[in-house]
Amino acid sequence: MSTVAAVVLFTGVIAYAVLGGADYGAGFWDLTAGGAQRGRRPRHLVDESLAPVWEANHVWLVFCLVMLWTGFPAAFAAIMTTLYVPLGLAALGIVLRGAGFAFRKVMVRTDQQRVTGAAFALSSVVVPYFLGAVAGGIASGRVPPGGQGDPLTSWVNPTSVLGGVLAVLVCAYTAAVFLTAEARRHEDADLEAWFRRRSLATAVVTGAVALAGLFVLRADAPRLLDGLLSRALPLVVLSGVCGLTALLLLRRAAPRVVQILAVGAVAAVVGGWGVAQYPDLLGTHTTIAEAAAPAPTLWALTIVAAAALAIVVPAMALLFVLAQRGSLDTSH
């Protein structure tokens, strides 16, 4: 039963990585779009794409937190008492990001718009970095079973830096592919080419960082590397195939096909992390079974989680469908 609960938990992690990651990545392109005049059109597309669904994807973060503290309370306590600095900074970034995105739409003065816009854009980069650093700290075994690990080296280390940088790059890649498809849907050839070039560039940089990361993991987290190159290798290969296919079909395939391929690339690589780390929950020293709550709690949690997913997934799907059809009024 503990493995079932862990799979449900990691399903939420994948959903947040894909959907929340696309949101964060859009903020990355907002940040790097250029000056007020040059970046006006890309930022407008970012606003149009995010406005119907902004912050909605954080439901998956809440889902993961509830699953973790209820199903694996010992692991939750260990993570929170060790990685409280990056988690706290990520939470602050989420708040600033949401506030910046909301207030920049209603600010009248240019200087106020710049401040709120900067808060949104910078937080969109900072949050995935800290979450990736947290994942690196967990995966490399720097969270002791009893918690109270080193508050600095637990997330300032080679694997955490790699995780943070890859998280930012993957978010940027996903968003660039999604926004390329959105620009095509809006029949804006210039903007489509703008985001397509950034999709290709981000894919190349992400691939280079991932390859360099193999040497980082060999020195800093060899057990994780062994898992990635053995039982998780099919998922790693699938991620690469989906990512490359999405890039090759950016010009020709239907936008929905390209978006699905980008989602598959991200989902596969995050799933590969989970498979590589299995059966451990905390890096190298605490298994899923050891960290799990009693069986009655896991049964109740699984039932509640299934009910929650039955409600949330159709609602989120409807939201995205309506947003894609342009049926949601986001002008107010």
Task: Considering the chains and any ligands shown, give keywords for the structure.
332 residues, mainly alpha, two-stranded antiparallel sheet, 13 helices, 2 strands, 77% helix, 2% strand
Characterization of the model:
With 332 residues, the chain is an all-alpha fold. It has a single domain, classed as Formate dehydrogenase/DMSO reductase fold, CATH 1.20.1630. The protein is built from 13 helices and 2 strands; from the N terminus they run αααααααααααββαα. Strands 1-2 form a two-stranded antiparallel ribbon. β1 and β2 form a beta hairpin. The termini are far apart. It is a multi-pass membrane protein. This is Cytochrome d ubiquinol oxidase subunit II. One of its GO terms (cellular component) is cytochrome complex.
